[in-house]
Amino acid sequence: MYGAGKLESRNIREYEMAARHARDCDRADLIDCLLEMAEVEWEHELYFRSRVREHFLGRRLPLWPQPPPKEMIRISLEREPVGSVDTNNQDGRVVAEPVTW
Ligand SMILES: [Fe+2]
After folding, report:
1. In this predicted model, what pLDDT tens digit does every residue of 51-77 receive, in sequence order?
2. Residue 9 CA, ligand 1 centroid: distance in Å
3. Would you say residue 29 lies in a domain?
4. 71 alpha carbon to ligand 1 midpoint, in Å?
5. 23 SS3 class
6. Is residue 84 a part of any domain in this protein?
7. 8 A C-beta contact, residue 38 and residue 74
């Protein structure tokens, strides 16, 4: 459960980044489905996080960073300027507004 939750957390960010790349390469047709996948992964992360917290051993473990509220997935993309993804960085960091979680 712990590993799955941590993996789902990473999946959220990967779908968000894929949506940014779609926006920046004029594939707006892909953005909504990629954001929808990020939202699905957000639900999965919440499920696994809650399962870990319910377990007596899980309550003793430090958890991975908690994602921002689900609605922020779309809001953060809307707020960023087009072309804010630095494609020269291997992790595709956002130049204008660093991801903080
Ligand atoms: Fe998932």
Report:
1. 999 999 989 999 999 999 999 999 999
2. 9
3. yes
4. 17
5. helix
6. no
7. no
